[in-house]
Description:
This protein has no helices and eight strands. The chain is mainly β. The protein folds into two domains: about 10-45; about 50-115, CATH 2.40.50. The strands form two sheets. A five-stranded mixed β-barrel has the order 4-5-6-8-7. Strands 2-1-3 form a three-stranded antiparallel beta sheet, with no helix packed on it. Strand 7 and strand 8 form a beta hairpin. It starts with 15 loop residues before the first strand and ends with a strand.
Amino acid sequence: MSGLIVDWSKGAEAITYQTCNACGARQYFRRSFCAACGSSDLAEHRASGAGTVYATSLVCRAATPETRAHVPYNIVLVDADEGFRMMAHGDNDLAIGDKVSARFSQFAGRLVPYFAKAK
């Protein structure tokens, strides 16, 4: 596997994904192997942050005391332009099919990807 690129899970304002050099599959969650073919020949890339809303779910009940201040908040599945799907936070008015772009926001004390309609 090539060198790791720091992303939002480590406090950087970036979304990363992996591509398999053997079969070309793309995956969002870091793994030591390709989920499609099992190869360990992976490369990491920084995503553009552009994508399309696949699904959306408005959360109206806080899961934890830390999230109470954010209710209601929207959880979205986004099909990234690079070919992977990810879950993230997003504007409450997002709908399936909306073109979106990522920014980063604090949520319950953590930096998280946050999607809004693309301009």
